[in-house]
């Protein structure tokens, strides 16, 4: 299964199987991610095609981070595949959305992701987490997820 990703200025992330007949590669339509109008689209069509050729690797050439995602609660089930590899530019928010989608949760905001028993901020990149929280340890990066706890 190959995932298609559109990642434009950190504002749009779409995943899906390219093998699915209904899958639309949003990179073919830059207006979907950037919010451009039809008038803007015609004037920027050539620039968008050039940018698409440059960005066609969907962050596959980025530095990669290997991650083990473990469930830290009896209230949630574990993932079928707990080992993933993704771009070091991905954020904790991307992981929350991924886990919520895989576990069919109503909202990704219901999750906490932890490294060394410390809750990670949603805007932290995985590179930042590796450098600051997993400094002298070997790969893979071990992260735990659990339902969000309301602290007083």
From TrEMBL:
The keyword ATP-binding does not apply. Residues 82-146 form the RAWUL domain. Residues 24-62 are annotated as: Disordered. One of its GO terms (cellular component) is nucleus. It is found in: Nucleus. The keyword Cytoplasm does not apply. Keywords: Nucleus. This is RAWUL domain-containing protein. Its main location: nucleus. PANTHER family: POLYCOMB GROUP RING FINGER PROTEIN. It comes from Balaenoptera physalus. CDD domains: RAWUL_PCGF3. Residues 37-50 have a biased composition (Basic and acidic residues). It comes from the Eukaryota.
């Amino acid at each position: 299964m190959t995932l298609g990703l559109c990642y434009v200025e950190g504002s749009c992330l779409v995943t899906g199987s390219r093998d699915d007949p209904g899958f639309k590669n949003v990179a073919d339509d830059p207006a979907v991610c950037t919010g451009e109008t039809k008038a803007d689209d015609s004037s920027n069509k050539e620039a968008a095609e050039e940018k698409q050729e440059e960005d066609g690797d969907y962050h596959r050439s980025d530095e990669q981070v290997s991650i083990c995602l473990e469930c830290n609660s009896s209230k949630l089930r574990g993932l079928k595949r707990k080992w993933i590899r993704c771009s070091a530019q991905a954020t904790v928010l991307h992981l929350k959305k991924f886990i919520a989608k895989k576990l069919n949760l109503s909202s990704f905001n219901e999750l906490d992701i932890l490294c060394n028993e410390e809750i990670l901020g949603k805007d932290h990149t995985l590179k930042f987490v590796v450098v600051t929280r997993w400094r002298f340890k070997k790969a893979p990066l071990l992260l735990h997820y659990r339902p969000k706890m309301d602290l007083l």
